[in-house]
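Protocol step 4 of 6: structure prediction from sequence.
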Amino acid sequence: MPTDQPTVAGYLRGSVGIAETEFPSIHESNTAGWTEVSETYQAPSSATQAIVELHLRWAPEGKVCWRNISLVETSPNPPRKVRLATVHFRPQGGTSAGDNRRMFEPMIAEAARRNADLVVLGETLTYPGLGKAYHELAEKIPGPSTEYFGELARKHDFYIVAGLLERDGTSVYNVAVLIGPDGSLLGKYRKVCLPRGEVDGGITPGSEYPVFSTRFGKLGMMVCYDGFFPEVARELTNRGAEVIAWPVWGCNPLLARARACENQVYIVSSTYEDVSTNWMISGVFDHSGELIAQAQCWGEVALAEVDLNRKTRWISLGDFKAQLPSHRPAPAKTPTDDK
């Protein structure tokens, strides 16, 4: 197949009308250039016929071929449940980065008591309340904070996402780190979108959108101001993210709903805003942008259990998430593209 991705649409025809179109997943291409397109579906009880169509778009003079088409009866996909937790806490009263880190331990223990698989902590958590500049609290990663939270992740056998300040040479980054259940640092995300105050404070923007494989699924991370713009969450979703962990100082909660809804991902936010402001909340947002768990008080843990294999179906669209790779707009041309 050409590198331009085709759309494969399938219809299941029953005795009454036509079911919504399904869009199978597009998998990796092999060395010969063939790309597997496949998915498991629950057929309507009255279905008598399946129609499979292949469309190639946005590839002038392109050519696409297909082969080995089959419909095979199989077992349904088992549930893939994950318990997503967020901490609503802003460190106060400490005198050091270590003090701020230790303040989160009781809430991490509470998340473990409730059998969380993932717990999300706040943005730049060693920074609030200490009255210091960003660069004074920046640390190497891995470093003391990842080691501290690594011990807790190993103790409780779950994933932790924490917002930190990273020092890399002469640069300082606002980052989210992912700690695995074995206590190891699995990766980091450097905040791409920086507000004016962080630019003036010496923060350097990131430029990459890593997505990490976990034992429950694919996880992406973004930080605070990233959520004001659709591009970051969309890039993470394009790379397969099913859950986005979001340490966020403050943001319009309508944007949290939008990022979850438009990308059909679960978003787990941890904020420093008081719930009374309704500027941002610590919670879990589902595929419809609905808030399915929220922490109301400081020091509270909110948790929601979700099934990553459960499809969200919309009227007239069906499984919208499956359509994103095929229906999202092609990259816009610049004036120099045709020259």
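Step 5 (inspection) to follow. The chain has eight helices and 18 strands.
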